[in-house]
Amino acid sequence: MLIERSAHTALAEATLHECAAGAFRLLIAEGGPGCGKSEFLKRFLGIAAESGAVVLDVPGLPDDRATPLGLVRRLAEHPALPDRTRERLRLATAQDAADATEPLRALSISAPLVIAVDDLHHADQPSLRQLLHLAHHARSARILLIGTEGPYDRGGDPLLGTELLRHPGFRRITLDPLSPEGVTRLVGTLGTLRDQQADGRRGAECYAMTGGNPLLLRALFQDRWAAPDTGGRGPRPTAGGPFHQAVAACLARTGTPTRDVAGALAVLGPSATPALLSRLPGLDTAAVARALQVLELSGLTDGHRYRHPVVTAAALDHLDADDRRLLHERSALLLHDQGARATEVGEHLLAAQPTAPAWAVAVLRDAAAEALVDDDAPAAIRYLDLACRACQEPPQRAATRIALAAALWRVNPSAAEHHVGETLADLHTGALADGDTAPLVRLLIGFGRLEEASRARARLEAAGHPHSGPGPDPDPARPSVVHPCPWPVEPEENRPQPAPDAAAPREPWDETPGAGTAAAIWGIPGPGTSEAAADEAERRLRACPLLDGTLAVVANAVRTLLRAGRTAEADEWCHRLLKEATTRRSPGWEAEFLAILAEIALRKGALPDAEERARQALACLPGRGGSVLVGGPLASRLHAYTAMGRYHDAARVLHHPVPAALFQSVYGLAYLRARGHYHLATDHTRAALRDFLAVGRMAQRWGLDHPALLPWRTDAAQAFLRLGERPGAARMITEQLSCARLWSDPHTRGVSLRLRARVAAAPERPHLLTQAVEVLQQCGDRLELARALADLGAAYQSVGESVRANNVRRRAWRMAEECGAKALCDSILPRQAMCGGDRPDPPGRDQGAGLSESEMRVAILAANGNSNREIALRLCVTMSTVEQHLTRVYRKLRISRRQQLPKSLIGPVGTRATNHKELSSF
Q1: In this structure, what CATH number is given to the domain that contains residue 734?
Q2: Over the stretch 267-320, which tens digit does the pLDDT of each residue have?
Q3: Which of 113, 185, 192, 482 is the most exposed, fewest CB within 10 Å of its CB?
Q4: Where are the residues of the annotated region Disordered (predicted)?
């Protein structure tokens, strides 16, 4: 159906009537590729044939130009010609007669003659001369010569552009693309919907993609359309589909200059201007202007932009790989000379890979900085990776590798650490310039590699450059990918405004004990008290934006709030920072804050939450086996699984691959502590003690020996107690208490008091444990509080206060159950020792195989030192029943007395009971 072509058809019919009346007429239908020239010609020739005219139609072929009289010879073979006329034409063309068209004039005497040449611009010059001769010498003949051509497609022969067009019988028809209204009509015709409003909306979409080109419109309807459940049917063309093929067909029907400009336009993309399009393919401005007009008349472009990415892809398909790389390389240089944005130049350099010229290194680094400001870390990584390959000097390559590592930290910390390791080698060989050591120190501190950071910082200070830690660059004007803007900057809207005294930049270690060490950022800020440290951490969080160079500052400020007992504030800040990291598409940062949320959950005693957050953190770390950052979330999972009694899951965590560098990093300290507690829970006490003491040695060597940071002394004290080495345990507990008292840390003090009760005399234990409970209630650690309550219940039991003991144990058990701490629940009171209720299975079940439930209950209570009377009161049975059960237990276990009962039935905390009232109150 020819939409918006009625006026053109009427003009053609009028010209045909003039021809039939005895006048030679020349009609040219002009339009862009795909705009319906051939369809229009076909429709008109049908009308001419119905009117009684003789129709001779022949297509112009690209090969015709190399074949003299090829077009006329094909006319001579047309089946509509009478045999006599055909023979005369054959003879004339064979003899290369001056007037080979004389037989055609003779034929027009009996009936109007229509000679149609589709793509007339492909005709050979001799044939064009014959047509020109016919036009000049047969002005009264009833002949209509009609042809189609594209705009500016008249080849190298000026005849068609001058003599033929100057003929008095000349008419021109311009077939423009369809208007938006015409497209809507066509959409309504081709589509299946009959909703005018929907057709109008989709018509606008289709016009925006095709510019009204009928060929493209039909192809669009054959291509992919969105499903109705995504908002209704809509065009969604894909590369390689019918729409892509139609675009390629349109481009193939244009001239070489137009295709060259089309390729240049596709390469330049949004940067295209007429001047650049002229310089890139090496064409004059007039040729570029004509080519741009052809592309727009074809509906492919709107101004200097392609209408759809599929159109761009089709234009690029006309270029081979080498030509495309060359165009991208030239585009990069032209844009760079014009002062374009670094990212614009960088995209062309990336497209021209695998190499880049030496001048491109600075541009690529600037492009990476721009990309990081826009939170496009993958793009920054691509720029810097290419820049590394383009570097020709070792110092330049080392500096660029540092910038690459900083960008990689956002998305792939493992890869970032690999580059840091290579850069350390450059530092030792002297290939790293002093001015580039500071960002390396920042990275090392962020990865917790404090010894290496300290050595690099000392080297920098020896060279007269004192600034080398997280925080602002001493020269904010110096471009830096690691830290692209000075600190502090204007806070984001979702952050509280900084206090007035936070306006001046200060280094994180300026007010920290041991100032000047690389460990300062991981230590306790402020003058030493928990409140001062928390206030300083809050100041940093308000003043310091989240950037590549400040991640360690921000993360450790949140940890400081947690260690100072401000758990709710730490949780709020961490969620806020996690949301920002997610919004800014930085999974490496997400992993950091998820790991801290796991630590917060552990501190609150929410074991399932801690395990889940740690799992999420690990999922954010691609190639996580190679990054030291796995130490934190793995440690949290180990702690959680161990406390939950899921020892098989904890063992699987220990089989998770970790890099050797983990144990030279701060993150390895948390991992060693967690591994030690797993060893302690599974009766590998010597291994646990080795891990705890190793943590202590490293903490002292790195300047991190602080009770709130690493309470390794209380860890070691527990191992000493398991080994029966009470003096060693007492020494560790005393040291820890003295340190915790100075810093006013309720958590560390509470744990230390609980363990101190273990080494104290029985009468002193209730008082110490009561203090521990009171202190732990302040810090919100329900798991440690449950442990203290369990010990307090045992202490009351040991001094004969059974009722109080049972009440406290009941509270401890319920709190441990809420935390998900199955191991602690079992140690407080095994299931078979309870009178009813659904409780966890007891330890030592395997050793009691064959015992009934009632026999197992009696055996457990007897193994834990309860007399027959106490067991009878506890289980609400008679003493005779207890004796009978014990007799059967001895027989089944093949023992003869109570002392031979399996030790696995004995819980860590005694379960003695003396009366029925105690049992019923549980």
Answers
A1: 1.25.40.10
A2: 998 888 888 888 888 888 888 988 999 999 899 999 889 999 999 999 998 888
A3: 192
A4: 458-516
